Amino acid sequence: MDEKETFLQIYDEAIKREGADKLRAYLLRSDFFEAPASIRYHSNRAGGLCSHSVNVYRRLLQLLLQERAGAYADEGALRETAAVCGLLHDVCKIGYYRPDFRNVKEDGVWVRKPCYVRDEAYPFGHGEKSVFVVGRYLRLTAEEAMAINWHMGGFDARVRGGDGSVSEAFCKYPLAVLLHVADLEATYLDEKSS
């Protein structure tokens, strides 16, 4: 099964709330399944965004089962939260990159190589854009919205600019910490730059 099929299977089995079908249709119309997760750091290839999202879901589900299982009404609710946050935390990258070319020197000869460049279609921020996009289709819990919003942790541009809200969010919403950790684990343990 390829990553797109894996993503859709997890999505269909876990996310049951109203609007899930409309969000799924939006993802299929978008470049979500073809886009890279980044242009330099991890899963920087076509389809990397989908692959990264599945990796984050798996890591988050494992963390939730270990750390927070009792915080959910049942395992279905836990799996739904893991799918909503893990699979959808980076929907902000839809329409974010476009294919291009760059010149690279190989053995003393310049070679034209395909690459991706940033070409933001809707500059709304990172985590906050994902919350906005997902929220157009699904009703998020406060904890899910906080987790998706702050999934970058200290790497978030708002934090680098001096905003300390991430610390408050991490203290009040354990899911935010776990999604950030799952994102880091997926990025640095499961994925490599190419």
Based on DSSP secondary structure assignment, what is the total number of beta strands? 2
User: What do the pLDDT scores average to?
Assistant: 91
> Beta fraction of the residues?
5-15%
Low-confidence stretches: none
Shape: globular
Break the fold down into its secondary structure elements and pairings:
Layout: H1 3-14, H2 20-29, H3 48-67, H4 75-88, E1 97-106, E2 109-118, H5 127-135, H6 142-149, H7 157-160, H8 165-172, H9 174-190
Antiparallel strand pairs: 1-2
Write up this protein.
By secondary structure, the protein is mostly helical. It contains nine helices and two strands, in the order ααααββααααα. It has helices spanning 3-14, 20-29, 48-67, 75-88, 127-135, 142-149, 157-160, 165-172, 174-190, and strands at residues 97-106, 109-118. It has a two-stranded antiparallel sheet with strand order 1-2. A hairpin with a 2-residue loop joins β1 and β2 (109-118). α3 (48-67) runs antiparallel to α4, α5 packs antiparallel against α6 (142-149) and α6 packs across α9. The longest helix has 20 residues, at 48-67. The two termini are 22 Å apart. The model has no long low-confidence stretch (mean pLDDT 91).
